[in-house]
Amino acid sequence: MPFEVPLTPARLIKRYKRFLADVVLDDGRELTVHCPNTGSMRNCGQPGDRVWLRLEQKPGRKLPGSWELVEVAPGELACVHSARANRVVAAALQAGLLQPLGGYAQQRAEVSLRAGGSRFDFLLSEPSECVVEVKCVTLALGGGEGAFPDAVSLRGQKHLLELSEIAASGRRACLLFCVMHSGIDRVRPADEIDPEYGRLLRAAVAAGVEVLAWSVWPTPEGLQVRGELPVLL
After folding, report:
1. Are 194 and 201 in contact (CB under 8 A)?
2. What tens-digit pLDDT sequence spans the chain (233 residues)?
3. Phi, psi at residue 89, to the nearest 5°?
4. No. of H helices and E strands in the chain?
5. Exposed, middle or buried by CB within 10 Å (0-12, 13-18, 19+), for 177?
6. Residue among 223, 228, 233, 230 nearest 54 (CA)
7. Residues in Cβ contact with 133 at an 8 Å cutoff, skipping those fewer than 6 apart
8. 183: number of CA atoms within 13 Å, CB side?
9. What dihedral angle (degrees, nearest 10) is formed by the CA atoms of 37, 172, 232, 102?
10. Do the beta carbons of residue 151 and residue 193 sit within 8 Å?
11. How far is CA 58 from CA 55, 61, 64, 120, 218, in A?
């Protein structure tokens, strides 16, 4: 999945106010860009780190571009644009690259199954149905281990409760960890950060929710689906 425009390398000065980042380009110019990530971005993006930006001049746009990638260790890249997880999963589903979720003729995004309920990322259907919720994983703990979430996630907890209800009703439900960090080769719940999420994840599995993790390697040229990773519960 190539990026829409070629990315521009830079160095991170700092991230602040959650959605802003100051960077310095290779030619010495300093810019403030959008940080498209609502999480804590723990272990992603220290001052001085190499980053890549999507710079675009669009009418009415206040900032000149967005922060896309960061080099978190020599040769290891993470994609900090969390919304890209859903986009790459949608493309991978259409291309048949996610084998456990293959065989469905229809794919709908942002689906609510009942009034007042959560909106799930995908509903796969025909001949049967499967509800899929995608979570972007970029928290690397070292030694190839990755974890989710990187901050307490009440929204994530609610998703797990509702996925458990769906599975308990006899419908297929799946939580998909989209791992957009080239240094992660396995995933576990971040119990030390959000113990309630870990508890609910294990309860969801007991209720019949399928939990998958898929590796997506970021490069300055684009995002490449690599394959399934183990989930350690």
Report:
1. no
2. 999 999 999 999 999 998 999 999 999 999 999 999 988 999 998 999 999 999 987 777 789 999 999 999 999 999 999 999 999 999 999 999 999 999 999 999 999 887 777 899 999 999 899 999 999 999 999 999 999 999 999 999 999 999 999 999 999 999 999 999 999 999 999 999 999 999 999 999 999 999 999 999 999 999 999 999 999 99
3. -65, -40
4. 3, 15
5. buried
6. 223
7. 120, 121, 159, 163, 174, 175, 176
8. 20
9. -80
10. yes
11. 10, 6, 8, 31, 25
| CB-CB neighbours of 132 under 10 Å | 26
* Structure tokens belonging to residue 110: 């942002």
> Residue for token digits 């439900």?
173
Would you state the structure tokens that stand for residue 180, as one six-digit string?
């957009």
pTM above 0.70, yes or no: yes
Torsion of CA 87, 88, 93, 97, to 10 degrees: 180
User: In whole angstroms, what is the distance from residue 128 CA to residue 171 CA?
Assistant: 9
The angle, 0 to 180 degrees and rounded to 10, between the axes of the packed helices 154-168 and 195-207 is: 10
Strand order, beta sheet including 106-112: 106-112, 119-125, 129-137, 172-179, 210-219, 222-229
**Which amino acid belongs to residue 186?**
R
For residue 197, the SS3 value is: helix
Two tokens, residue 232:
């350690």
Length of the chain equals: 233
